[in-house]
Automatic annotation (TrEMBL):
It comes from Rhizopus stolonifer (Rhizopus nigricans). The lineage of its organism: Eukaryota, Fungi, Fungi incertae sedis, Mucoromycota, Mucoromycotina. Residues 159-236 form the DM2 domain. This is SWI SNF-matrix-associated actin-dependent regulator of chromatin sub D. It comes from the Eukaryota. Residues 53-73 are annotated as: Disordered. Pfam families: SWIB.
Length: 380
């Protein structure tokens, strides 16, 4: 093809370059998969602010002796619980996607210390995360009232995967206070191997040392029972509790203290690498382009066959037509499943000395014999 299409040489070189590029990409993917072993989360600090506003309070009214009021102008206050992530100490080149305040909590509960008979709305307000709800930068609670109220704010963290608080005894053994169940099990196995507590004959048997015996209450256990023993030493993490007094003597009041909380964010670089490894859409695009290239190459080959056909016809039309007719005749015989004999070949004696003649005679005589037997049976 290069004689007719000089650019085909460049295409061949590009194919070789593509092979080398595929090898380089495969190596890079393997490196990325090894990098997945790095910590999947980044630790950041969430700073929580608590404040409140007051509206239509008697102390704010211009006429304190005006006792006429309605529900719209009744004294009220609004409690605000907000939070934001602090900037990292070492800024990154690419910005971390901002997660909103409510994304870090499974539920938020506010307990108000006031007489329930005077305030039938209820003194316990609960917010629970819903899968369909959007995250926000904070929550607001509005209630009627013209007196200061003590509030207890309970923030229940949302860990993915779920983390547990490790009991004091187990924490001293493995050095972990808060972690996932799988991490706790891994550290306990390391402790068992480090202290050679496995049985010499049966590795499934674990001989508990004094610490494990005092913690689990057994001197010997089976490896299959270890998860249930560990589960008894795990509990849900303690919530974050903030005490705050809602003041109504001024329009805006804010706590003198901000509360910092350690949170974990998904590693953006790790997620970006995972997306690069997957890249299903890019792979589909490459496959579609490969299909187009195959179609183009096939079209070029068909055009070359047509060109060669016409070139041979121009060079020697008579010889070309004879060969072409003979070729078409052979193809037709194959398609129809028929065998035709050339008249000139039949006139030669060598024609009847071919191996197929004996087989043809055998089949002919067999058919004649069967035909004769059918005739005799018919007469009887």
């Amino acid at each position: 093809i290069e004689a007719y299409i000089p650019e085909s040489k460049l295409y061949t070189e590009l194919c070789e370059f593509e092979k080398n590029l595929d090898v380089a990409i495969m190596r890079k993917r393997l490196d990325i998969q090894e990098a997945f072993g790095k910590p999947p989360h980044v630790r950041r600090t969430l700073r929580i602010f608590v404040s409140n506003t007051a509206a239509d309070q008697p102390s704010q009214s211009e006429d304190a002796n005006n006792f006429e009021s309605n529900d719209d102008n009744a004294p009220s206050w609004t409690l605000k619980i907000e939070g934001r992530l602090l900037d990292p100490l070492i800024p990154t080149k690419k910005a971390q996607p901002i997660q909103k305040f409510t994304s870090f909590f499974k539920s938020i509960i506010v307990e108000l210390d006031r007489d329930p008979d005077q305030f039938p709305q209820g003194n316990i307000i609960e917010w629970h995360k819903q899968a369909s709800s959007a995250d926000t930068d904070g929550i607001e609670i509005k209630r009627k009232g013209d007196m200061n109220v003590n509030a207890r704010i309970i923030l229940v963290p949302d860990f993915t995967p779920q983390k547990y608080k490790v009991s004091h005894g187990l924490s001293e053994m493995i050095g972990i206070r808060l972690s996932t169940r799988s991490n706790v099990m891994d550290e306990l196995w390391k402790y068992i191997k480090r202290n050679k507590l496995h049985d010499d004959q049966d590795k499934r048997i674990i001989h508990c040392d004094s610490k494990m015996t005092g913690l689990f209450g057994v001197s010997q256990t089976d490896a299959a029972q270890l998860p249930s023993l560990v589960q008894s030493q795990l509990s849900f993490p303690d919530p974050v509790v903030i005490d705050y007094t809602i003041c109504v003597d001024k329009q805006f009041n804010q706590s003198n203290t901000a509360y910092d909380m350690d949170v974990e964010l998904d590693n953006v670089a790790r997620q970006r690498m995972a997306n690069a490894v997957a890249a299903t859409q890019l792979q589909k695009d490459v496959m579609a382009l490969d299909d187009k290239i195959v179609q183009c190459v096939q079209s070029i080959n068909n055009s070359k066959i047509k060109r060669d056909f016409l070139t041979q016809f121009c060079t020697n039309p008579i010889e070309f037509i004879n060969k072409w007719i003979a070729s078409q005749a052979r193809d037709l015989e194959i398609i129809l499943g028929e065998t035709k004999v050339n008249v000139e070949d039949v006139r030669q004696a060598e024609f009847y000395k071919q191996p197929w003649v004996k087989e043809a005679v055998f089949h002919y005589l067999t058919s004649k014999t069967q035909q004769r037997m059918q005739e005799l049976l018919a007469k009887k």
